[in-house]
Sequence to fold (188 residues):
Amino acid sequence: MRCWWPDGLRGADPMMVAYHDEEWGVPVSGGRALFELLALEGFQAGLSWATILRKREAFRLAFADFEPRVVASFGEADRARLLADAGIVRNRAKIDATIGNAALLLGLAEECGSFAAYLAAMLPRPAPTRKQGDDWKDVPVTTAESDALSADLRRRGFRFVGSTIVYSFMQSVGLIDDHLPGCFLYRG
Fold:
């Protein structure tokens, strides 16, 4: 048995099931992987995660595998290329935010040693996991921790990092374990 969301309303989505079973909630520490998931969570705003997963490979191609140094160097020609790429979400604000966030992430990595070190300093203790009896209605969309991380990122100039996006990012990179009791990945 697994968490409820990979099954969707129309039955199991193999891509969502694979994401849940192999990635969601697994701790991530590499700067490129953290940047990719932060960027994809931002692109997801207003859309479904399944839409983003279906476009993930196109995103990786379009954004140089989310290598922050490369993305931070993108100029106007790259913006035009991205806006014309039907394989990704063509939203100028999200594209500009991803490019700008790459440069800001590099600054944070320089300041703190790495983006992972920054996150560890901001969230020094593991967030609690779901408890027996919890169901999907008990999983919040924001927490005091996501509020604080969001506020700090925004203060530093990051965009598309509201508390809900940040909380989803925290779930995806294993900063919080929101697998539900009954899920085979639940650690309790």
Remarks:
- The radius of gyration is 16 Å.
- The first helix runs from residue 14 to 22.
